[in-house]
Write a structure and sequence with these properties.
340 residues, alpha/beta, TIM Barrel, two-stranded antiparallel sheet, 10 strands, 46% helix
Length: 340
């Protein structure tokens, strides 16, 4: 694959004040969300939900790329049109989640290691033939008493660049996602320390393993206090802590940064991204974009309820959240948008 093509694709994913829609939930995760709303947990219900997403009018105005799951990339509209073609026709670049999930790490209670490297080269080749142009691999790092351990950080920081190198070999832009989780009572400062430690380790390994930084996207967490922390930081405090951490740990050569939402409410995720762009956009070496899942999808899912009659309302809700996040990239988001 021509390196220029990879660089162009990476830049397109974060250009035009757009961002990524992460619709790569595994079938068990998707079924769990359906169950919470009384939606049947069937393959057809999942297909119908995903058709609702990819056919949302004007979605390409705000979304540059969509991360799919293995089942999703093989699915079609009712009329037989592959989802990959529907997305491409809307100007949205199709991508694919390729890790096999986070598993318990042997000898390290409470910590996870992401699996999926075995056979990855062949799977990537298949996804390229299906039309994927980028990929994603997620590592999860918990914060708590005595964790994250250096062993956990090192293991995940070694797997991420191996995946990224295989992607670039196959002609796919890798999205590198080391997520420091929000679960717990840790402070904003503790999250910042852990996030910086993880990012420094990941970027050292990216260098060691020869990953071309201009041909990848970083998908990090925002620096946040744990969900059960008694003190939740103000929006501007999150913006300052997050950008400061990135400036210290992330190479300027990276094509772009697309934050995960990680359990934040949709409104807070938009507000925090907006604050970063208001305060720092003109001084940063990379674009600060979004790669949200529930923070874009959840309101639409609640509107849909598994009923065809609700599709237009659900699509309006999905577009609204995508539009809010495009505004946040411009530094133009406000709470007043939520009532529109």
């Amino acid at each position: 694959m021509n390196e220029q093509v990879l660089q162009d694709t990476a830049r397109r994913l974060v250009s035009g004040d757009k961002g990524l829609l992460a619709m790569d939930e595994s079938n068990p995760t998707c079924n769990k969300r359906f169950a919470n709303l009384g939606i049947p947990q069937t393959a057809e219900a999942r297909r119908a939900w995903r058709e609702l997403i990819v056919t949302t009018p004007r979605l390409g105005e705000c979304i540059s790329g969509a991360i799919l799951y293995d089942e999703t990339i093989r699915q079609q509209k009712k009329d037989g049109t592959p989802f990959v073609k529907v997305l491409a026709d809307a100007g949205i670049i199709p991508g694919i989640k390729v890790d096999a999930g986070a598993k318990d790490m042997a000898g390290h209670s409470g910590e996870k290691i992401t699996e999926g490297l075995d056979g990855l080269r062949d799977r990537l080749a298949e996804y390229v033939q299906m039309g994927a142009r980028f990929a994603k691999w997620r590592a999860v790092i918990a914060v708590g008493d005595g964790i994250p351990s250096q062993a956990c950080i090192d293991a995940n920081a070694h797997a991420l660049p191996r995946y990224a190198a295989l992607c670039q070999e196959a002609g796919l832009v890798p999205i590198v996602e080391p997520e420091v989780l929000m679960d717990g009572a840790h402070t904003l400062e503790r999250c910042g320390e852990a996030t910086e430690q993880v990012l420094r380790t990941v970027f050292y390994q990216l260098y060691v393993q020869g990953v071309v930084l201009e041909e990848m996207i970083l998908k990090p967490n925002m620096v946040l206090a744990g969900l059960s922390s008694p003190r939740q930081a103000l929006v501007d405090e999150v913006a300052d802590a997050t950008v400061g951490c990135l400036l210290r740990a992330v190479s300027a050569a990276v094509a772009g940064i697309a934050f995960l939402s990680g359990g934040q409410t949709a409104e807070l995720a938009s507000a925090r991204l907006n604050a970063m762009n208001v305060r720092f956009k003109s001084r940063l070496p990379w674009a600060l974009a979004f790669s949200f899942a529930r923070a874009i999808q959840q309101l639409a899912l609640e509107n849909w309820q598994g009923k065809e009659v609700n599709v237009p309302a659900a699509q309006r809700a999905l577009y609204h959240r995508a539009r809010c996040n495009r505004a946040a990239r411009r530094g133009e988001y406000s709470a007043a948008m939520e009532s529109e």
